[in-house]
Specification:
The chain is 35% helix and 24% strand. The protein is an alpha/beta fold. It folds into two domains: 5-72 and 101-169 and 278-355, 3-Layer(bba) Sandwich (FAD/NAD(P)-binding domain); 171-276, D-Amino Acid Oxidase, Chain A, domain 2 (2-Layer Sandwich), CATH 3.30.9.30. The strands form four sheets. A seven-stranded mixed β-sheet has the order 5-4-13-14-15-12-16, with helices on both faces. A five-stranded parallel β-sheet has the order 7-2-1-11-17. Strand 8 and strand 9 form a beta hairpin. The protein is globular. The mean pLDDT is 95. Residues 4-325 form the FAD-binding domain. Pfam families: FAD_binding_3. This is FAD-dependent oxidoreductase. Keywords: FAD, Flavoprotein, Monooxygenase, Oxidoreductase.
Amino acid sequence: MTLSVTIIGAGLGGLTAARVLQRHGIPAAVYELDTSDQARSQGGQLDLHEENGQLALAIAGLSDEFRSIVHLGGAAARVFDRHGVLLAEMPDDGTMTNPEALRGDIRRILLESLDPGTVRWGKKLTSASALGDGRHELVFADGSVVVSEMLIGADGVWSKVRPLVSDSVPSYSGLSYIDTYLDDVDVRHAGIAKVVGGGALYALEPGRGFLAHREPGNRIHNYVVLDESPEWFGSIDFGDAVATKARLVIEFDDWADDLKGLISDADTDPILRMIYELPDDHHWTHSSGVTLIGDAAHATVPGSDGANNAMLDGAELAQAIAAHRDDSDTALAEFEQVMFARSATAAAVGHQDVDLIFGSGAPHALADLFRGV
């Protein structure tokens, strides 16, 4: 019998798994709740690292395609204080150690590499239950039912597959990011564009700040970062973009005008992204016929190589399945042990990075790092 694999979630991890499985001749079907690949924005830029994200794309045979989408110069970075004073600057060294590329472009090259019909769009998973012998019944919102031989949960922080293997529930990390975009920046937002430069901007103080990045297409993507409670964010009506911008600007009232302009002059409505995480050492006892990758397995704070590790999860899991075609449980169990160790280390590093950027030493701790102090 030819093994087939069912993947829930068409994010970077799930698509990488499907691509590598298909390269090994193993059928894979991906079920995704979005109605198409254009249904929503895929977010901003990612720096893909040699040891995980780029390695995953090499395993997937997509290194050349990745090089074609790299944002040259995008790895430069600047650190400012709240008054707009430049504290440190790090140029893009021009290497391929951790180049920047748009998440949507990375997803596109993965989608284009898959067999036609691999992704089943508009499939929102509502429940998953074990049938025995490693098989699972998957029920979707449209009433359709699928029975999996091997199931991979790549369905993010609020995974519907996770309860099959773990009782852990994500908790609020204490940080939230609010997305804004500015378009045609060199013409319409020249002052802000000059401050941001060609790469990333960090404007910080303890517990809050701006993380902005120049993107291809003369665009700046900004995250307003705030260390506030869910109740605090609940007091803001994010459905009213004008009022939301005005409320956020108040939080940065005595900051430099060009920094506040990242909010007040935004060309898009602010979008709240509250950061939830699983325990740093999240793991489970292996369960037959099912496993998790990416945020479904190890959601944590930004700075922990989340997308990079999700892609490596997908690539290495697919390799393990291919190496143990006749013993899928050995494949999954061996992969899980490697992933558990890697994700625990990454989560610890992520928390250290958050403390470096937004902790009591902000903004000088990051500036000192950039200066090599």
